[in-house]
Design goal:
single chain, about 525 residues, alpha+beta, OB fold (Dihydrolipoamide Acetyltransferase, E2P), 3 domains, seven-stranded mixed β-sheet, 10 helices, 27 strands, about 15% helix
């Protein structure tokens, strides 16, 4: 008895009369290189009942014939098509051939509940990491999102494109994945709908790229698919196979600590020294290093604030919390330190604002623990643990930024602290102004910022993806001291993983040991 349909695995050159029943797993348009507003081809990934996948293409001359006949996720009977070798460095399937639609190709919608709807072919992250050159085949990976960078933008061919890097971890290992353009918005929306904590993320049809001699992943425009906490059996297996030990899993940590400069570089060689008197009297906005003593806490001031999982502050509203960054109401918040301290030196006094990462380092206690003990009391109700700060002498890297805000209240935002005795001693021995040479770019618009040269991770991703002709990635809106290099970039004003409020601080990573097994 002649079978009704051929298996996709049977498709090969040299034969005609193929007839298949397949689901369109993925469907996208490829724009013309020279005319981006015009479609060059219609591409798709097809899967049959056995789970075998094959790529299919519709050339631009036939686009009008098949565009309205095909929909992603639907099942079709297909016949009268041509077969060609599958080549190139962005192959969506392992099948050696691809389907090429012709004018005579027949497409008929049908039922096909037995055909897989997601069609993932998972690749272990350890296998991804073994690659030493760019891989020609796109891969599917599934794992916990164990870190994420701030959202950035870079300029290429005069256009501003968003970018974010996240870390994905399964039982075999971990690697980084870069998302560009519309995929950053997609991730933000999916994260906003997730239930909190470290989500499981599926990245389907991702490109393996090599940068800095390491294999990483990145999206392929219009092709890659991203799902958060997908309801699949493999996600349950990931949950059982990866444990986190002492690592905080209540939110996704920020990555990027590798590019953070050393304490010596930050406090001794990069920024000017100032006394408190000089800090108050200077007309120059910028970042300065001050040696001062903490005299105590400012009376009747809040010492913590409620934050969304995107790390921005939230305000109580309608029985929930409203986050401006996510532009929605949220029902969970995380307390984070924001402590105003009185400081003094031999020349004057001042008020510094110390944020979550530095406060945790100084107290060796997370904010949530102290808020719980204090029963959420805030202004004026300081925990006894704060007493250990009084009389403490240390270096403060502070920002003075009076010209950009009409709300300057005379206090200074602390960007980093250092109580290392050796560094403090070296600070006193070094000359008066440890000011690095600075570049200035004339006539830059006010919304233009620059990339710090230390941000090699983002720069490498951009170069690996688009080559050296692309402008360097921009500093995030929350990293306001990245202003001394010469590449202009636009500042990101809103977004899920960007800290732009004056009361938000960059997150300090405190990784625990990650157990895999």
């Amino acid at each position: 008895m002649e079978k009704l349909f051929h298996s996709v695995s049977e498709i090969a050159l040299g034969e005609d009369g193929w007839k298949i029943k397949v689901r369109v797993l993925r469907l996208w348009e490829v724009p013309s290189f020279l005319k981006p507003d015009q479609t060059n081809s219609l591409e798709m990934v097809l899967i049959d009942e056995m789970g075998t996948k094959i790529h299919a293409s519709v050339r631009k001359q036939l686009f009008y014939v098949f565009q309205s006949k095909l929909s992603e996720g639907k099942v079709y009977e297909m016949s009268c098509f041509s077969v060609a070798p599958s080549v190139g460095s962005y192959r969506t399937t392992l099948h050696p051939y691809k389907i090429v639609f012709q004018m005579t190709t027949k497409v008929q919608a049908c039922e096909g509940a037995s055909i897989p709807s997601l069609g993932i072919s998972l690749c272990k992250i350890a296998d991804v990491c073994q690659h030493t050159s760019d891989h020609d085949y796109l891969v599917d990976v599934l794992g916990f999102m164990t870190g994420i960078s701030v959202e950035r933008e870079y300029v290429r061919d005069g256009k501003v494109t968003k970018m974010v890097i996240f870390e994905i971890t399964d039982a075999s290992g971990k690697c980084e994945c870069a998302l560009f353009g519309q995929y950053v918005d997609t991730l933000n929306k999916l994260m906003g709908k997730s239930g909190g904590g470290m989500p499981i993320i599926l990245v389907q049809f991702a490109k393996v790229k090599i940068f800095r001699d390491k294999a990483s992943l990145q999206n392929v425009m219009n092709t890659t698919r991203i799902l958060i906490n997908p309801p699949i059996e493999q996600a349950d297996q990931i949950r059982k196979s990866v444990t986190f030990g002492s690592m905080d899993v209540s939110s996704v940590p920020r990555i990027g600590a590798r590019s953070k400069v050393s304490l010596e570089e930050d406090f001794l060689r990069t920024f000017p020294k100032k006394t408190l008197e000089q800090l108050h009297s200077t007309f120059e906005d910028g970042v300065f290093v001050v040696y001062a003593t903490i005299g105590g806490l400012v009376d009747h001031e809040d010492w913590w604030y409620p934050a969304c999982k995107c790390h921005r502050s939230v305000s109580a509203d309608s029985g929930a919390f409203y986050c401006k960054g996510c532009a929605k109401h949220v029902f969970q918040m995380v307390p984070r330190f924001r402590v105003k301290v009185n400081v003094s030196d031999a020349t004057n006094v001042g008020v510094f604002v110390v944020f979550d990462g530095d406060m945790q380092n100084l107290l060796n206690t997370p904010c949530s623990s102290l808020v719980s003990v204090a029963k959420a009391e805030n202004a004026g109700h300081y925990p006894p643990e704060f007493e250990k700060l009084k009389g403490k002498k240390m270096l403060f890297k502070v920002e003075k930024c009076t010209s950009s805000s009409i709300f300057f209240d005379g206090s200074f935002r602390v960007k980093r602290v250092c109580d290392d005795p050796a560094i403090i001693q070296s600070f006193h021995f070094v000359g008066g102004q440890c000011t690095p040479s600075k570049e200035f770019t004339a006539d830059l618009p006010k919304d233009v910022y620059h990339l710090d040269d230390e941000d090699v991770v983002v720069r490498s991703f951009v170069h690996a993806a688009f080559g050296e002709g692309c402008s360097r990635a921009v500093a995030s809106a929350g990293e306001s001291d990245m202003r001394s290099t010469s590449v202009g970039v636009k500042r990101k004003l809103e977004g899920t993983f960007v800290e732009i409020d004056s009361d938000d601080e960059p997150l300090s990573l405190r990784y625990g040991k990650l157990k895999q097994g």
